Amino acid sequence: MDTTLSIFLQLADAVIITDIRHRIIDVNATYERITGFTRDEIVGMKAGLLKSGLTPAKTYEDMKANLGQGKPWSGVFINRKRNKALWYSNITISLVASGGEEYYIGVFRDLAQLKEGVYISETRKSKIQYEILKVLALSCEVRDPDIEGHLVRVQELTTALLHRYNALNRSILTEEYIQSVVNACILHDIGKSGIPEGILYKPGKLNVYERAIMETHPLIGVDILNKISTELDDELFQQEMRIAKDIVAFHHEKWDGTGYPSRLKDDAIPFEAQIVSIVDVYDALTSRRAYKDAWPAEQAVDYLRSQRGISFNPELVDIFCDAMICDSSGYLNEDKRTGEKV
Q: Could you tell me which SUPFAM superfamilies the record lists for this protein (predicted)?
């Protein structure tokens, strides 16, 4: 074997070398010891012989996309050893040229060597985060029987708006950030749990004193999250809690600086709060509640457009109204929850 390639086999971690078609050229002694397969057994076989079926499909999709562009890739595989035991490992795969040929070098870091804890796949991690935060949001707003539907719709619209924005802006947002915002946005009105019901569900307009009390709910929400963060000091929720605090604190700020509670202006308002403010207002306007009738979708869209540059980020309003609410024919999409236009 070429000296350039043989150097990799001297690494302490498990190493696999394949040709460009992913057929195994060589492995080192650490790979043999961990997997239970000898070099002579697997040379010439496809590198996927250890697949367990438990690695998320998206992991392989990301790997293929990066390698197809000649870029190195790192991720976590859940493979199966010769003795059928699961092998959790972080692998970095790089394309290396040697002797006029191209090869893939895979270096595995055995996650079983971690001192504590267990590996949780990104898919499972996201589901755990979503379910726990959803339970938290619902438990804090249990007085409102309509709240679950509102929270789910806010999450769905937030997901769609973030992905659409990303598609139009060369994917500047990471998938991890998008998922964190989607998970956290369900907590946006958690502070309303501290507002008296007589104010929260009052039919008609609030007086100046009631309005002042209502406008404390972002600060109440942040206080709740701070207490939770103190008790739940876990890296599994660190990013979600940070983003959730920004959403809770600032989703009632306005683009022109006239919002509450901090009177932030323009891009001083955290991006995730800018997103949720549009989505929250749209769903609130188009939903029927005990104290108000639902607005027709056209009226809600007109309102959002009238508030571009005043209450909302103009670019986000345009994306939401043009690319998400209206379909290619110019008519509004059917609302799946009622069968009516939204």
A: HD-domain/PDEase-like, PYP-like sensor domain (PAS domain)
pLDDT tens string 61-120? 889 998 989 888 988 888 999 998 888 888 999 998 888 889 999 999 887 655 545 555
Q: Which of 113, 148, 165 is the endpoint of a domain?
A: 113
* Residues 6 or more apart whose Cβ sits within 8 Å of residue 215: 252, 260, 261
CA 313 to chain CA mean position, Å: 21
> Does residue 55 lie within any of the structural domains?
yes
Query: Which of these is catalytic: 51, 115, 192, 205?
Result: 192
Q: Are 210 and 202 in contact (CB under 8 A)?
A: yes
Q: Quote the DSSP letter at residue 1.
A: -
pLDDT tens across 175-206, in order?
A: 889 988 998 898 898 888 888 888 887 887 88
Prediction pTM value: 0.60
| 108 and 142 in a common domain | no
Tokens of 31: 């790979």
Question: What would the DSSP string read from start to end of 6-52?
Answer: HTGGGSSSEEEEEETT-BEEEE-HHHHHHH---HHHHTTSBGGGGB-
Kind of pairing, strands 73-80 and 14-19? unpaired
Question: Largest alpha-carbon pair distance within the chain?
Answer: 82
- Report the CATH number that the domain containing residue 216 is assigned in CATH: 1.10.3210.10
